[in-house]
Design goal:
- The protein is built from 14 helices and 33 strands.
- By secondary structure, the protein is an alpha+beta fold.
- The strands form 8 sheets. An 8-stranded antiparallel β-sheet has the order 28-25-27-26-30-31-29-32. It has a 7-stranded mixed β-sheet with strand order 2-3-1-4-5-11-6, sandwiched between helices.
């Protein structure tokens, strides 16, 4: 976050590209909806109360997500808020999908961390936070569910500081909690925000006051709560650091807002915070140089591939984060991996639940490019420069099972379906060098269910997943002669992944140690850069 960068063109400077991360059930989907509501992208929020069709959450479109109420596929949504253009990338909060989330975080410039006021920092939040840490992403924190019984405000802040080793600067301070929660005091602008409990879709009212000594406060806040507020804010101002934008942009400090997403409270302040303090589109790293958002040639990289977004047309959409330039529909871009030009004639922008043809897009935006499998995760698109973007990882799966079609006649179709899922990044698919069949590797057990249900719904192939003797997989790299020697002796352990790269399937850590001991110049790695 250097200061000596060239100024960005106004269209790019007004973009804020961010993800919302949280532990499952902390209220991320509700918060996403309210963002869309305030951004004018949807007319009605409230996924549970509305009737019938209207009640399916706008950002969860896969059937299984609707059944289970979890977000499994990260989708991107763009909308305007005040003078800003927000690109919100939704991340799956479920721990079994952490790799998808990890890759999503390579495509954003900041993150909003949602914490449940009663539960504080949970395990999954910690994991996601670590990822943000690795990339020095600026983080804004939203402490949700203040309208339920929650913990002491100082306790929550202490827990974040201790667990996540980051400075916390309160941007707002809650007044009351649980049933007594009536709103918050905006510490950044010295004003009072009062919650409207009657209408959950209504925006809270703001009372302009001059500091905490203003007599007008007594008209809105009961005396006991007011005394407590004055005392706590005074303590907070002495004990906690004041918000410092530079420290926030460097990833050392997080401002925290308190609110209740379901009551639309505190959301607008959080959005204002993202607009006012959040980072503009940041430079992206490639293997040869840093690409600044202000550069005029268009460049971008694929961070996610989503197959069958529309089950009627076997379509696949590659999500591309534009790193630089001003993209226009119909442009010919170089697909760096295949060295072929690609005319991008029907790129889409996701505006809440609708897709629209993107006539143009700028650095920082996320566009979807429908394709038939040419685009894979990690691919670069440029106006001719052979760039390779770095830092988009692929992780070794932690669970392996073999898969077969219950109808042997459909085995060929199964191979095609599995390859699609592998390219989408939904699972690792390994072809053992001995025997037929495939071994599928995932990060969490829930993914097997998701895959089985998608293979059946999208391809009409009922499948069975069965345990295999293998526990994990490692990519094989290193000296050619050593690799050949090892492969000849360990044929029953060898497979290839969907890119054709060599993989060593392991039963125990002992297998890995043995191979490394017996074959000098050989490396077994648990991650592979998704580069071409």
């Amino acid at each position: 976050m250097l200061d000596n960068r060239p100024a960005l063109p106004p269209e790019i400077a007004r973009r804020r590209t961010f993800a919302i991360i949280s532990h499952p059930d902390a209220g991320k989907t509700t918060l996403t909806e309210k963002f869309l509501l305030f951004g004018g992208a949807i007319q009605m929020a409230g996924q549970v109360r509305a009737k019938g069709e209207a009640r399916r959450t706008r950002s969860d479109f896969m059937k299984m997500e609707q059944d289970r109420g979890i977000s499994v596929s990260a989708s991107a949504m763009s909308f305007d808020f005040r003078q800003y253009r927000f690109n919100l990338v939704d991340t799956p909060g479920h721990s079994d999908f952490s790799e998808d989330t990890y890759r999503t975080l390579t495509a954003v410039d900041a993150a909003i961390m949602v914490i449940d006021g009663a539960k504080g920092v949970e395990s999954q939040t910690r994991k996601l936070f670590e990822v943000c840490r690795l990339r020095d992403l600026p983080i804004l924190t939203f402490c949700n569910k203040m309208d339920r019984e929650s913990r002491d405000t100082f306790e929550i802040i202490d827990e974040i500081q201790e667990n996540l080793a980051i400075d916390v600067a309160p941007a707002s301070w809650p007044i009351g909690m649980g049933r007594e929660f009536i709103g918050a005091y905006d510490l950044l602008h010295d004003r009072l925000e009062i919650m409207d409990r009657a209408d959950r879709n209504k925006v809270a009212e703001t009372v302009q006051i001059t500091g905490l000594d203003d007599p007008k406060l007594a008209d809105h806040v009961p005396a006991d709560l007011l005394a407590k507020l004055r005392e706590e804010v005074e303590m907070a101002r002495e004990l906690l650091p004041a918000f410092d934008r530079k420290s926030f942009l460097e990833g050392h400090m997080t401002p925290i807002w308190f609110g209740s997403a379901i009551n639309s409270f505190g959301v607008r302040e959080l959005m204002d915070g993202m607009g006012e303090y959040g980072p503009e589109p940041q430079p992206q790293t490639s293997d040869s140089r840093q690409i600044g958002a202000e550069e005029s040639p268009v460049t971008g990289f694929v961070f996610k591939v989503q197959a069958n977004m529309d089950p009627k047309h076997r379509d696949r959409v590659a999500f591309v984060r534009l790193a630089s330039g001003h993209f226009e529909r119909g442009m010919k871009l170089l697909h760096v991996r295949s060295k072929k030009p690609m005319a991008v004639t029907n790129p889409v922008l996701f505006l809440a639940a609708d897709r629209e043809l993107a006539e143009e897009a700028w650095a920082g935006d996320i566009i979807g490019i429908p394709n038939h499998g040419q685009l894979r995760i990690g691919d670069a698109l440029t106006e001719g420069e052979p760039l390779r973007f770095t830092g988009i990882p692929s992780f070794a799966p932690e669970l392996l099972q073999s898969v077969r079609a219950t109808d042997p006649m459909k085995a060929k179709h199964l191979e095609k379906a599995l390859m699609q899922f592998a390219e989408e990044g939904a699972a690792k698919v390994f072809k053992p060098s001995i025997g037929s069949g495939f071994i599928v590797g995932v990060v969490g057990a829930l993914q097997f269910e998701v895959l089985a249900s998608r293979i059946e719904i999208e391809y009409g192939i009922p499948v069975r997943f069965e345990p295999t003797q293998f526990q994990s997989a490692r990519w094989v790299q290193g000296d050619k002669a050593a690799i050949e020697k090892m492969v000849n002796v360990n044929k029953q352990h060898i497979a290839t992944d969907n890119d054709g790269d060599l993989v060593f399937l392991t039963r125990l850590q002992w297998d890995i140690d043995r191979v490394l001991r017996d074959y000098e110049g050989l490396r077994l790695t648990a991650t592979k850069e998704m580069m071409v």
